[in-house]
Amino acid sequence: MLLVLCVDLDDDLGRKTGIPTPVIGADDVTEAAVALATADPEDSDVNVLFQGVTVHDELAAAGEAVEVAAVTGVEGSDIKANRAVGAEIDRVLAELSTGEEISAIVITDGAQDESVLPVIRSRMPIDGVRRVVVRQAQDLESMYYTIKQVLADPETRGTILVPLGILLLIYPLVVVANLFDVAGAAVLGIISGAVGLYSLFRGLGLEETVDGAAESVRNVLYAGRVTLITYVVALALLVVGVVQGTDTIDAVRGVHDGALPTGATLAAFVHGFVQWLAVAGVTSSLGQITDEYLAGRFRWRYLNAPFYVVAIAIVLYAVSGFFLPAAPGVTPLELGDLALALAAGTLIGVLSTLAFAIAESQIPSADPA
């Protein structure tokens, strides 16, 4: 059995005529169409109802088992309207229960009403869809509905309207700038740069990365993480270390005859930088250890980190000093001193590893969260 289904998603029929829906049967649908045409001759749903009756009559004349019905939604929310249409279709199918399989021919007045097609398809097969609109208005209506849907999407709206709004503001901002003796070219360059940065930001999808970073920082602040402070301190120490490394290069260059070789330059920078690097590493590792302890995830082996940092710093400081001449801020080392420094760094690393491994095996620590 075929069901010619006239869809009025925003319930013009019920609101303007007071006729209860769903309307089932050719005679009742015709009366409803006449009532709606009388109440509002310009309503496009009048055409939908008359078209539904016409299709019904044509199929009946061809010997098809066919019925026509009009269903409506509600004004406003598309989701509520689709649900209302689905409920009315269920009532229509309950009244038409003949034991035969029912399929539908859907009659609508535009693209907006066709958003209900998945609801209809979930209840019965759809053999066809016919859109009935005034011919001169068909393209205009479709374009209007498309624009409406685009502007209803917050993401699309921001992507399209923000750059468009900035571009439309270029001319008035340049005029205002000229009134205050500000170079219009400068204003134009700033706006152009802002639009370019925004386009790159959206095109590369960086909004998710920035949002994630902001959320992480917010969580760290609210959770009272010690690492936030220690990382800031460590960063400051690294900046000081870079400056100190550069100053050490200048000091070595001042006592060196001729151009400073690349190896000596690197050794001078490391010699001045590594002390601050060690302090930064110890600071950040202590902050991380503190957070692990507060979170109940502490392990004795975590205490190896600051000792490893100190051991590596001793080795780098000694090796770089071995290749440098005496200069302000430089500690030149002889071969024996270098051997002692290397042995000290090795012992610090080995002994800390053994000590904390024994401590972890003998002293229980908190289970990981």
From TrEMBL:
Organism listed in the record: Halorubrum alkaliphilum
Domain of life: Archaea
InterPro entries: DUF373 (IPR007254)
Keyword line: Membrane, Transmembrane, Transmembrane helix
Keyword Transmembrane helix: yes
Pfam families, per the entry: DUF373
Protein name (record): Putative membrane protein
Keyword Transmembrane helix: yes
Transmembrane segments: 158-176, 182-201, 222-243, 307-326, 338-359
